[in-house]
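Annex B. Sample input.
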Amino acid sequence: MQKDRSEYWLQRVYGSRSTEELRESYDQWAPDYDRNLEGARYQNPPLAAGLIGRYVRPGAGEVLDAGCGTGLLGDILMTLGYDQIVGIDLSHAMLAQAEARGVYRELRQMDMSEALDFPDGRFAACVAFGVLTKGHAPPKAIDEMLRVTRSGGHLIFSISEPAFQDGGFKERLAALDGSGLWDTVEVTPHYRPIPDSQTEGDLLARLFVYRVS
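Annex B, continued. Sample output.
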């Protein structure tokens, strides 16, 4: 039953035709989100924590968890000693689930298709997993993530392969690579974020790490 529900919600969020529809879908999914994705063997939180641990030391400064959802990643990071985590998400109900974990310094509702309400260079790192994908945050979200990350800080994020190839991310990353604003640190091989999903199990993504100049 959990797998059946996860398939329903995955199809619904990936098929959303507007920001409002996406927000409403996540608001309704929030109470069962963790259980549903656990049944589909969701890979992003542990992979994200591994990369963050490789490049961002605990105590380096605030970490922005952009598109934090129910706080799965924040929970892991707090256990690993990161106690300055700020989370943003489109969904109020998702943020309520994240708040209940008690691991975020600050949680705010924001739309990643718009300008982020943070000053330039506030964060030691900005991370986003499962957000730069079809029907979710657009390529210009990367520019905002870059803006709010300080010089010497890191951007660490996943991009789904369909979004990379056909959603404008390939071109945006190429432009930023030649801008002098950041340096490429690591790009992983492809992996499957939701391998046990019947409908999204073949979806591929990669993880990207950049150091801000």
